[in-house]
Amino acid sequence: MTTPTWIKTTAAVAATAAIGFAATDPSTPWYRGLRKPSWQPPPPAFPAVWTPLYALLAAAGTRALRRTTGKDRARFARTFGANLILNAGWPVLFFRARSPAAAFAEVVALDLTNAMLLRHAAKADRLMVAALTPYAAWTIFATALNAAIVVLNAGQGPVGHGLRRAGVHQRRT
Q1: Largest CB tally within 10 Å, which of 84, 87, 88, 154?
Q2: Is residue 19 a part of any domain in this protein?
Q3: Mean pLDDT along residues 153-158
């Protein structure tokens, strides 16, 4: 008996979410000491946004895998898998390795895989595009936020070792 596609896809997305949740800790002195842009949402907004995004990602992934065959299905599966690995890796690089610069490079790669997923989805099904678009849009926002944190903390030695100067656009979370 083979495991249904929706179970495998949902399990992969849930594992990604669990890794991200486990790696993310906005309460650390390191994170609180980083300069952040004034437009950064408060920490509780992130799980509130990510929960439905992960549900949409699982639904879109399942739909894509069910509606594609052969090489198209294999390409989508590889891209989807790479996307999930990059998604899970971002909080590990940012929060655990305390490397916003490395996390920025990684999230740019995530954005590229999002574009590839959207391209695959556009060939197969408009509903998949609709399900993936909020995820892609949020990761673009996350990329801009990550870039702003890197810039605001430049010249602080390893980014964000808690050294602060007063700044008009500084926000503590």
Answers
A1: 87
A2: yes
A3: 76
